[in-house]
Design a protein that fits this description.
Two copies of one chain form a homodimer. Chain A is built from 16 helices and 31 strands. Chains A, B: One of its GO terms (molecular function) is proline-tRNA ligase activity.
């Protein structure tokens, strides 16, 4: 490819709304162009990256036995009504009426359509297992689209769906996909982690996220440097403390803490460690009558150590809270505690409140909490002596750095990640809702066991950039670079020797299958180098009259701080060596 | 590829709503699956065909210097409001409101978006010419979607857009695309014609349709077997008659024709050739006042020979009718002619009517038309004698078989075609509407000259089938077959020799780049052959114990009536010879 036949369009300045580096660099490198909020044209330079991502994903999906099809972008609402998602999903589901006022949606994902195909196609156990996938445009009407391709509204996703005759087979299908994902992410050349994720109502451990490691990632990833353990923060278990509760030493004291409504403020005022304080979080659950009216409300008090944060996913699994909960309103709090938030605690409750103590709180002695009186806290609080033992003790917190790993292998570490893939065992959730059955050996209908597997095709390049960039621009891994090698001739318009050397090298590399671009635009060296450093092509060869006079070219990897002289005669071998995976 | 790892799903019966053979066969062959009216999933077998179509198109577009990008499916209405198409387009434009009640559309095409890109990117004459294209999902909310992929609502289109500095350069870009299209359609292995099409308001001859020839096609294609002339019916000129008008011979007679309200009925009743009758078509044009109210109406009488049909495209170009016209209402007709339709004519008009005679009518003598009186016609009508010479004489009819070719090379023939591609010179229509300018050498802003170029990627396979099928199923050209070769082993489960021969042949062909499928499903020969004849794989090799005993395999092309025995040792060479383009 020659630059003069391609569209290279770099910008000095990033758009004002570009908050993250990948958005800034993809825009400046001319890879994407904004059309509307969260809606981008994939410009030629960006599309090359996307196509490389797609090709790797397609190859590995096919290798793993998945079969490609393409489902419609615009889908009739009927199927989505069968599963109830047409009503249940919020405004992120883009709803349309056609010319006949019939309801349609723009696909955010395709469980309904693929399950409809499966129930028509897979009638016998002999036809299972099957895995269908597509690489296709999706739309989610995000409330606040941002970060360029990272959280767009329109995007490209690879979504695969497996259908199996039983749970054991479904889990084997799941494992095959999880392995394919590892191969895919290995091939991308990115640092990533496969982390256990919460599998919601389905239960079990069969849900993993593939997170590209990046300091700017939105997700917290928990891992054990001494073992294979890795999970997302939602999922990671905080082990029960190994030590027993110490004996009570201090007396219960009502202590003035004027204006100090947070644990850190109280700890600072009293000169004690934050870990001796307990924070109170008040939730509510509503009981509905037959007509859907609220017939009664239960108030819950969750107790967490002052240096810990609540984990909503864990809380949502507790009996009594697993059908949905909300934060209590200010009037409800005052009614039950007699005080406003910031000064609440579990001691001396007059109204019935369900107390849930985090496992770490349950082993504390001599702790500090709100006195249920404005501007006062209690110190020296002790379970059993000052208040009843907690009715429920559970893991309801996020782990923190240094917590013991659930596999017992050492302290946990936390880093940031960007979710680019997810494998998920679905069980019979969709097949039951849509009556997708097959006949087993006995001729009896059985629900299909399903799994679903996504990769954010257009998010991946953004994640790759968040991980691989410097102040000059993008640094692509070879596998997904828009071009692998760029040839920068200096003075090509003046020097026949340079032109000939550049074109010969271009043709030889192209003939041997290298994805090479010859920059024949005639830009000056500074501007030309700046462009390619911004665009992030990993391998650069500079050809100049001076170099050719010495029989040499200059090679520089995008990560190198200086160029290497290479004999002109050996450049193809040299590059092919560098390009070996 | 092995059949057991693929999804093969054939049906004995076609769906009741499948009116055309391609729809029936694509559904029965498991290539498409209907999700809603005009909305289909491309199943694995069908997607393979679509991908081959895409690959050929992409290769030739790149070869012609076009650059691929991908524009969004969901597009903000603003750009469509700039050109006025958001309002002007009918309900086939699928309109959406997002969660913030902002207007969007699902792209039916992308002139607005690409022109928006061009006006941002191409600021200088040095950056032109450029051609950007995409292969992307489109949606048109057809009033009556039908014929499967032939007239779907959601479909895949390749749309390219060229930007040039002046008309001469734009025409060169147009020609480059027209040539690329010829290469593309040649490579598909289909019989097709590139026909001149009407270029609407732009004028000139720079619009061609690429029509796949098929008896079931919706379009009529006019061509001259003795020359290169080809045009669609809308465009093809009916030459002015070479002969002068004969002298009047007959007297004008008011002739009773009770109940005979059509030219054929009248000709039959009177025992005269249909070509001696003249049909009257009454149109109306409304003049609007400043407030958009109808301030006046002009009635038009179009006269065509009884065996000719009106050509609305030609009519719409006549002065006075070129701003839009409608058919006159029944009251308007009665008011101006004193009679109802079926008995109208140009003789003895009492109210002002603008008469337009087709060129063939203008040279008629002793003709027959309605008497403006129910159940009566006039015979022996003659221009000048019985009524004034026509105010306007023009070509307003469709050509018919046998008409002289406009290039003077012989009589015209007509066949049916399916439009699968269109190249179109747009001029500055969109660049003016959207103020897409570049700076010329003098630093002066100039509007870009544009062209647009479409190929119906998902319609193409349907057109290929309309042209290439028999009673047993589809007959794919090699270039776009889902598989090029199918290996059908007989008794593979019983015979190790058959299995080994089949697998060896599969592996050898696959290794040499042949797109081969081994049918290892274990179906019985009859069912297996029926499947592949339905699916339409062009080359079949049958391997059996009996044949292997003689050192032979059986080869049969899908069009062959019988198999050919081929030495097992020479089968790969044999096939590669057959597969040469």
């Amino acid at each position: 490819m020659k630059a003069s036949q391609f569209l290279i369009s770099t910008l000095k300045e990033a758009p004002a709304d570009a908050e993250v580096v990948s958005h800034r660099l993809m825009t400046r490198a001319g890879m994407i162009k904004k059309l509307g909020a969260g809606i981008y044209t994939y410009m030629p330079m960006g599309l090359r990256v996307i196509r490389k991502v797609e090709a790797i994903v397609r190859e590995e999906m096919n290798r793993a036995g998945a079969i490609e099809c393409t489902m419609p972008v615009v889908q009739p609402a009927e199927l989505w009504q069968e599963t109830g998602r047409f009503e249940k999903m919020g405004p992120e589901l883009l709803r349309i009426k056609d010319r006949h006022e019939r309801d349609f949606i723009v696909q955010p994902t395709s469980e309904e359509v693929v399950t409809d195909i499966a129930r028509q196609e897979f009638r016998s156990y002999k036809q299972l297992p099957r895995n269908l996938y597509q690489i296709q445009t999706k739309f989610r009407d995000e409330r606040r689209p941002r970060f360029g391709l990272m959280r767009g509204r329109e995007f490209i996703m690879k979504d695969a769906y497996s259908f199996d005759r039983d749970a054991a087979s479904a889990k084997a299908s799941y494992e095959r996909m999880a392995q394919a994902y590892r191969r895919i992410f290995d091939r991308f050349g990115l640092r990533y982690r496969a982390v256990a994720a919460d599998s919601g109502a389905i239960g079990g451990d069969l849900s993993e996220e593939f997170q590209v490691i990046a300091a700017t990632g939105e997700d917290a990833i928990v891992y054990c440097p001494d073992s294979d353990y890795a999970a997302n923060l939602e999922k990671a278990e905080a082990l029960a403390p190994r030590s027993d509760r110490p004996a009570a030493c201090a007396a219960l004291v009502r202590t003035p803490t004027p204006g100090k409504s947070t644990c850190p403020d109280v700890a600072q005022l009293l000169g004690v460690p934050l870990a001796t304080t307990v924070k109170s979080i008040v939730l509510a659950t509503d009981r509905l009558d037959g007509a859907g009216q609220v017939a009664g409300t239960q108030i819950w008090l969750l107790l967490l150590r002052g240096d810990h944060d609540m984990n909503e996913v864990k809380v949502a699994k507790l009996p009594g809270l697993d059908a949905g909960f909300r934060f209590a309103t200010a009037p409800e709090i005052v009614e039950h505690f007699g005080a406003k938030p910031g000064y609440l605690g579990p001691v001396g409750l007059k109204r019935p409140v369900q107390v849930v103590a985090d496992r770490d709180v349950a082993v504390m002695a001599d702790w500090i909490c709100g006195a249920n009186e404005e501007d006062f806290h209690l110190t020296g609080v002790n379970w059993g002596r000052d208040l009843p033992e907690p009715a429920v003790v559970a893991d309801i917190r996020n782990v923190i750095e240094g917590d013991p790993s659930p596999d017992g292998k050492g302290p946990l570490a936390i880093e940031r990640g960007i979710e680019v893939g997810h494998v998920f065992y679905l069980g019979t959730k969709y097949s039951r809702a849509m009556n997708a059955t097959f006949l087993d050996e006995a001729g009896k209908p059985q629900f299909m066991e399903m799994g679903c597997y996504g990769i954010g095709i257009t998010r991946l390049p953004a994640a790759a950039i968040e991980q691989n960039h410097d102040e000059r621009g993008i640094i692509w891994p070879d596998a997904i670079a828009p071009f692998t090698v760029v040839i920068c001739p200096i003075g090509m318009d003046r020097s026949a020797a340079v032109r000939e050397a550049a074109e010969t090298l271009h043709d030889r590399l192209a003939a041997s299958g290298v994805d090479v671009l010859l920059d024949d635009r005639g830009e000056r060296p500074g501007a030309m180098f700046a462009d390619w450093e911004l665009i992030g092509v990993p391998h650069r060869v500079v050809i100049s009259d001076r170099g050719l006079g010495e029989g040499q070219l200059e090679y520089q990897h995008r990560r190198d701080s200086a160029a290497t002289k290479v004999a002109a005669s050996g450049i193809v071998d040299f590059l092919q060596n560098r390009l070996k995976p």
